[in-house]
Every structure is written in C-alpha cells, then in structure tokens.
Amino acid sequence: MAEPTPYTSLPGFVGVSLEESYVLEIQATPGRLSITLDLRIGSAHSAYRDPLDGEVACFRKAVIEFPAVRELTWARQGVARPAVDAAGERNWGGIDELRQLGAVYHLEGDWGAIEVMSEEPPTIRIVGS
After folding, report:
1. What is the C-alpha to C-alpha distance for residues 87 and 101, in angstroms, rounded to an integer?
2. Phi, psi for 76 (deg, rounded to 5)
3. Is the pTM of this model over 0.85?
4. Element (H or E) spanning 20, and its range?
C-alpha cells in the first residue's frame, strides 16, 4: 500500500505552514471545497513578504481550493467553537493535517476532519495585498 503524501510535497504548498495558519471559513459546495485562512508563509514561498508591524511572521489571507470534488465527508463539524483574536476576528485554529493518498485528501483540525475525493489537486490562491 502506498504511503500518504504530506501537504508540503503538493505543488504550491512548499514554504507554507498550515499548522501555524488560522482557518477563517470553510465552504463546501457541490463540486468544490474552499478554505479561507490567514496563511503562514515562509521565505521559500513566492508570496512571502517581510512581516508587517505587529506580526511575528508573514501571514497572508489565502484560499485553499479543491476545484473538482467528487465526494466529501466532514466529521465533527460544529463541535468546536471559534477563537476570537485581539482584533475581534474569529478563527477555527490551524490545519493540523493535510495529506494525500491517491485522489483522496484528508484534512483535520479543531474544526473537524474532512475526507475529500478530488480529481484535481488543491491550489492556494493569495487574496488581497
């Protein structure tokens, strides 16, 4: 049996830390899964910039998209409550795990666990400046 592929080996995910990012919203619609987050970006990623005043690292608002979802299961959704930061913004914690096994991707965090079967790999899109 094949070993799962960690997210750091997926195209576009080099230089990001999902565990140190903050999930702001998860949207599952027919054929698509979108996760909006404050993404922690390291210097190895093309979207890296020096941290802003008050930031300890580079964070950019981003969306992880699974564009060709055929099947999705979301366990433990609605169990956890969001954290509220000093600016009053709600977040659901990080993505503790994202791994791929064939066409199936497993994601897990305080917000639950998602198994998604997608015909295409996920992409990261930076939004805003």
Report:
1. 38
2. 65, 25
3. yes
4. strand 16-29
CB 63 within 8 A of CB 124: yes
Distances in Å between the Cα of 72 and the Cα atoms of 8, 51, 109, 129 are 22, 35, 16, 31
Structure-block tokens of residue 125: 């899109």
The separation between CA 47 and the C-alpha centre of its own chain, rounded to angstroms, equals 15
Residue 82 CA to residue 91 CA, distance in Å, equals 5
Please compute the mean of the pLDDT values over residues 14-26 and round it to a whole number.
Answer: 94
Burial category of 21 from C-beta neighbours within 10 Å (exposed 0-12, middle 13-18, buried 19 and up) = buried
CB neighbour class for 5 (10 Å; exposed up to 12, middle 13-18, buried from 19): middle
pLDDT (tens digit per residue) in 26-81: 999 999 999 999 999 999 888 888 888 888 899 999 999 999 999 999 998 876 77
Report the distance separating Cα 19 and Cα 103, nearest Å. Answer: 22
88, 77 contact by CB (below 8 A) = no
